[in-house]
From TrEMBL:
One Pfam assignment: PEP-CTERM
Cleaved signal peptide residues: 1-25
Keyword Aminoacyl-tRNA synthetase applies: no
Protein name from the UniProt record: THxN family PEP-CTERM protein
Alphabetic keyword roster: Signal
Amino acid sequence: MRRLNQAIAALAAAGFGLAAAPAQSAAISEWGFTIDSGFIAYTDTYGGTAGISGSAANARLSAENGIIGLQGGGGFDFSTVGDVYSKLAWGIPASAGGQSSLSVGAATNGRETGSLMTNGGEVATVKVVHNNFPVYAPSLRSATLFDMVNLDPLVPDLPGFDAPALLFAIHFLETDNDGSCEVASPIPCNDIFVIDVAGAGFNPVDKTFNQTFAYGADLYNAKVRVDGVDVLTNAACGAVGVANGCLGFTTVEGLSNEFQVYFEITDKPYETPEPAALGLLGAALALLAWRQHRNGR
């Protein structure tokens, strides 16, 4: 039985990022990584779980039966979780498209492996996919995504480590396609996802979630970017029932909406952009847009 309240309570104490790893003396220039993802909790529009089915279970997370440490302290108890699915499906189909669904790397059961260079730019990892088809209730209302990252220093070859796990709270609105849309769409109303990542530093300039971590005496910054994730409009945030300034993405009705997730490591600790700097950036962009408009008249 999924325990959403337990997961959300854990999320409140969790951060985003990676903890200090084993001590060493040489800076890491290349990393191997393994990411395991799956949904540990979810609710439907009636407050239960009966309206949602899971598939493509992640092998590592489904086999866990103890406590996994969370960033920021504490841990999440897997002893009552059971299978951890990388794909959730819901709704009574109202068209030939079938059920709606949300998946994170379901093609590989929520596991992604690869390598990257420090300061070498971002690499593609899993895809978030929302099959947004017309359905009758019950629909998805909320979910909690559990995400584990194992980092393995390759150059130089040093011991790898599991980062404390990340928890992503997802709030979802299956919009009524009656034309009165919070987010306009050609066919005709976008569904809305809000993502709450406690403790993450969101950089509005490059749309990344950031967290500094240490390996030995050196500091690094882990950066995650999800295509389409940005600050949503106040109307979209309010429709989902969260405060203004929320982060998330919207999806077009009748389509399979794909959002690529990218991962990057740099040797520059993350610093929150100063409001004044953001203000100057906004003013510069506005001036550029005004000049382009004027020259185009």
